[in-house]
User: Fold this.
Amino acid sequence: MFKFVLSLLGWFMAFVRSRNSMGLEILALRHQVSILKRKNVRPRLGRWDRVLWVFLRRVWSRWAAVLVIVKPETVVRWHRAGFRLYWRFLSRHREKGRPRIREC
Assistant:
């Protein structure tokens, strides 16, 4: 229920934010996608990439909120690791030995 309320709040905030803020966020996210589509194994930021982020930092207060460049493989690896931890937690031994039988 908490996640639902949070997502509703985020949806509402998207309508409240100014068009400039929304446009700058879209610009930043599209730039990150273009960096990830480069053919290099470890894409590096060039001079114009840095100029764009300096510009965004000066004109937009929420620039750090979207400054995360992560490959999709990294996200999948994090998800798999979390799933392993979840199942490890569920399959841990709570009590040793045979479970107790209730007496009537």
